[in-house]
Each structure stands twice: as structure tokens, then as C-alpha cells.
Design a protein that fits this description.
- This protein is of the alpha+beta class.
- The chain contains 11 helices and 12 strands.
- It has 3 domains: about 60 residues, Orthogonal Bundle (Arc Repressor Mutant, subunit A); about 110 residues, Periplasmic binding protein-like II (D-Maltodextrin-Binding Protein, domain 2); about 100 residues, D-Maltodextrin-Binding Protein, domain 2 (3-Layer(aba) Sandwich).
- The strands form 5 sheets. A 3-stranded antiparallel sheet has the order 5-12-6, sandwiched between helices. The chain has a 3-stranded antiparallel sheet with strand order 10-7-11.
Length: about 300
Amino acid sequence: MDLRHLRYFLAVVEEAHVGRAARRLHVSQPALSQQLRDLEHAAGGPLFTRHAKGMTLTAAGEALVGPARIAVASAATALAEVRLASGQAEDRLVVGLPETGTAFELVRLALGELDARFSPSVVQTSGLPWLHQPQAVLRGSLDVGFCWSAGLGKPADGAYPPGMASIRLCDDPGSDALIPWDHPLAEREQLGPEDLRDLPLGLYDRTLHPSLHDVITSAARQAGFHRVMLAEGVGSASASAPLVLARTGWTLVQKSVALQPPAGTRAIPVKNLRVDAGLDLIFREGDNRKSVVGLVDGVRRTFAQVQ
């Protein structure tokens, strides 16, 4: 297994179709299919379920998405920082993406419009998880990122470090629990603290995003979760999926993710639980390059059209 396998795997995940992924990667469909088979052999089992209209992830595939994105993003970040240090940085725009849900689809649409205005080589996407994107933007290994933060209408004070500009694209509150689709609770239309009290709440490490972490745990306690058991070390619907699928916990997801939950899971509203938050576009203050301004304008227009 190497980085090429992981890049190809992520392209198929994002396109949900081998043919579309092959066109995006500029490789033949048989060659891409062979790479997927090689990866599945190395993984010890199927990563996708094949359908007539496309492909969906298996539980094993869901478990690989987060680590694959981190590995690919880490390699891209290392290369970008080496080029920056050697004075050989390319005139290009490196963009982080939301990891899942309807927000991911909207950002992909906006980037497609940007590709029509600039050379395709200008825009390169990164699979770096959203929790790590603010620091990557500040370091310069990402030019533009997307991150969730607390607050309605705009990010809460102190959500981002100095030197970073942010634009609230949409409010995206968290009020749904992600659980396995075949869990006994999955048939319920609503859940309460009494249903989830014996399962740990999967959250990312607090050091990555203290303000949002504290808002989530505070909202859970106010909703009646008097004993919030945290399963630290996970950070998103994609990263939390193995925890959820293993029936060892649950995680809180935003509405955009609840509309398109990861394979094998179901999102169910939780009574009296709501975390006021939203999706922000982030970039370095004072970065007025044409490509950055064009992307910011394009993404804002795309989100405005669907609100």
C-alpha cells in the first residue's frame, strides 16, 4: 500500500464512481480498478460495495477514509513546506475540503466553477481533516480551508487564532446523534439522554478546537447528559464512524452531515440537544491573490444560492 493507492481510493470515495474518478485522476478505468483491487487485497477485504449506479463504502472502507486523508494530506503538507523553505513554492492554490455531508458537495461545486476560470493546475485539494486546517492555513501549507466553529451568524469570538480571516458560509447546528443503522435505537424518530447515557460521546481532543469542544459538552449536560463520557481522539463523522459502527459510542453531527450520514449509520435528532455552530471559510489575513479572491467569492455565491 502506498500514497498512490490512498489518493486513488479517496478519489473514488468522493466521486462514488470509478469512471468519474478515473477521469478526474487522468488514468484509465481498468488501471484504477486494478489499483483498488490491490488496495483491497492489502486491506484484507472489500472497501466498496459495487452497485449499478456507483459505489458505496463498506465498514472497512469507512474506517480507512480518515487515516487515508491524514496520510495524503501529511505528504502534501510536507512537500509544500519543503518547496516553501527552498523558495520553489508554486503559484497554486491548495484548498482543504469539508470531510463529508452536503457541505462537501457544495464546496466541490464551487471548486468546479473556479476550475472553469483558472488553469486546472491552480487548484489542488487536500484531504486534511477540518480540525487541522486552521493551523495548516497559518503555516502556509493550505491557502484556504473549511472549519466548523461555535456561534450563530458568525464565528464565536476567539474561534480562530490571530492572523486568520474567516467568513461564515452557513449556520449548521449540531443536534443529531450518529448511530449504527441496524442498532435497536435506529428505528426511533428521536432520542433522549436516557437512551444514550451508557454510551460514550465521541469527540476530538480538546486541544484541537477548545471553544467548540466546550460548547458541545456544555450543551450535552444542559440537555440532561449529566454523565458525559468522552471518547477522545475522534474528530468528525468520518473519523467517528468506526466508533459508532463498533457500537461502542455515538457522536454528535451537524445537520449537513445528518442529511448525508456515512455508510452504515443513521442520524437521529436528540431531544433538547442543540449546538449552535456553522461552517466557515478560512484563509490568511491579507491574502489578496486573484485565485484566493475568486475562490472566496465563488464559494460564497454557491452557498448563498441554496439558503
